[in-house]
Amino acid sequence: MRNSKGKLFGVFNIIDILIIIIIAVIIGGGIYAYKEYQESLSTNIKTVEYSVEIKGVDEKFVNAINNGDLIRESVKGNSLGSVSGKSFVPSTNIYSDYLNGKYVVSQVPGKLDLILTLTSDAQVTDRSVSVGGLEIRIGQKIYVKGKGYAGEGFVINMNIKE
Predict the structure, then answer these.
(1) In this structure, how many other beta carbons lie within 10 angstroms of the beta carbon of residue 114?
(2) Within 10 Å of residue 6's Cβ, how many Cβ atoms?
């Protein structure tokens, strides 16, 4: 089995065998860790319902949106889910009244503030909620687009369904 130079089978010495064993253990550990990570990802998928407020849109914009429309993030193209509801109120702005020393709320004529409710499957962890590969947080600015419309707004509410 060993030749005069101490090589096993005439090819490997003890150090070569140890290196091969160490590499095999590292590869095996990596495969095990990857499988555990993939299992944890698939078990944390939950349905998430969240609301996006889009300010200062016109009535045509609101009427273009229908329940069931698929919405994408317009910068990166990630899927954000489907429309499960919409509501709107007249758009308002706050102005400073320097003469009287107070703030005044006034309506913006012809404009509406839209609250778009989206539903999607999301990857939920202790630290984040990811929809279509995009991390979603309350207060985050988000760019939405559907068929024939696009806008930007902020995530104002999130509900994770069990």
Answers:
(1) 20
(2) 8
